[in-house]
Amino acid sequence: MAPAAITPESSGTTTPTTQSASALTQAGIKHALPETHAPLDASKITHTYTTTPRAVPAPDSDETKSQKTCTDHMVTARWTIESGWETPELKPYGPLSIMPSASVLHYATECFEGLKLYRGYDGKLRLFRVRKNCERMLRSARRIALPDFEPSELEKMIVALCATDGEKWLPKERAGHFLYIRPTFIGTDAALGVQRPREALLYVIIACFPDMTKSLPSPPALNGSAANGAAEKKASSGLKLLASNEDTIRAWPGGFGYAKLGANYGPSLVAQGEARARGFDQVLWLFGKECYVTEAGASNFFIVWRTKEGKLQLVTAPLEERIILEGVTRASILDLAKTRLSKSVNDLESLEVVEHRFTMEDLLSAQSEGRLIEAFAAGTAFFVAPVGKIHFRGKDVEIPMAEGDSGAYAKLIKSWLVSIMYGKEDHEWGVVVEEKGVPQ
């Protein structure tokens, strides 16, 4: 079965198009507020520096792996329906004060983002396409009935925090390392009524995060007898994915799978826990009785295959039905592939980039007929992670890995992104952060 282009009718349900869903979001979710209400203005940010600075943990320490350690400061901005946005504050990292009846605790009025601050090999701090994260957070906020803000102002808040804490927490001797940035937006209205929050808090924190790519399985060593060696060569490296069951759905047309909401992630933890308990790294989320392939855990999913007509393609699920996250890494991979893989590179054949529906049946047919070239997941945490095995309905599907621990296309695309993120390539996607540190 060849991949088919998305249409509302093809899913067997009434599905809003991107345009109609966007119109619904704009008209039905935004707060109707007077123009006199104060907009978010990061130029007015106030600074209060910590008097109890903490030690920076080593990159591979247990403290870093716990993902609980944050930098010395955070940035917050409060919003109320009466006055709009208050002055943003850069202040010491610490607990938030909200009422037990706060909207976020009862109605999940919360959204967030995830991005990284990189220490380049040229010594500079960089953010990667930070504006796209800020724009996506606005879309998420509108979907969850939180107030509007100008994405460029959130970007300034992020840059201010990175400029303050980056020098200490990501020193120049840690070139090639990163910190994890978590902008978060919560409804703090203390009223228990089911209504749009009349009060909200936008904040940004930076956490010490392990390099998730280092935890991926490595290819087995080739030793022992010839028979053992042959078996080892067949063993999978890369991510091992467990395909979701028919009774487990992560997102659905007309829902909120496209928004980065906490409500998208909590319900997926049961399936993720089952996958881990069975020895898999993540869940491969399928949709509908047709088993359309959507995402891998919290990451976008890509395959490289050859069509039955012989055309080489890079394929990922489309955005139109709004059941997958519009990943920043996803968008970057598509952009780079369209511009750089339209012709052969490093002896790799050129390919066509398509955003199409495809099913597990399509994938299985390609694998059995020798047309499946490789597969990988892509997101902020695992970055570009090759997939070596998919377990579907009692059967293991082995995915080719031309480079031993990766497919050739995933390896090349990853190298391009790394070069931009860490300053090996001068590119507009790499936003340099001017370090200021904490005044002495």
From TrEMBL:
InterPro entries: Aminotrans_IV, Aminotrans_IV_CS, Aminotransferase-like, B_amino_transII, BCAT-like_C, BCAT-like_N, BCAT_family. It is an enzyme of class 2 (transferase). The keyword Transferase applies. GO terms for molecular function: branched-chain-amino-acid transaminase activity. PROSITE patterns: AA_TRANSFER_CLASS_4. Its cofactor is pyridoxal 5'-phosphate. Residues 7-22 have a biased composition (Low complexity). Keywords: Amino-acid biosynthesis, Aminotransferase, Branched-chain amino acid biosynthesis, Pyridoxal phosphate, Transferase. The modification N6-(pyridoxal phosphate)lysine is found at residue 260. Pfam families: Aminotran_4 (PF01063). Its EC number is 2.6.1.42. GO terms for cellular component: mitochondrion. It comes from the Eukaryota. It catalyses: L-leucine + 2-oxoglutarate = 4-methyl-2-oxopentanoate + L-glutamate; L-isoleucine + 2-oxoglutarate = (S)-3-methyl-2-oxopentanoate + L-glutamate; L-valine + 2-oxoglutarate = 3-methyl-2-oxobutanoate + L-glutamate. Belongs to the class-IV pyridoxal-phosphate-dependent aminotransferase family. This is Branched-chain-amino-acid aminotransferase. It comes from Zasmidium cellare ATCC 36951. The lineage of its organism: Eukaryota, Fungi, Dikarya, Ascomycota, Pezizomycotina.
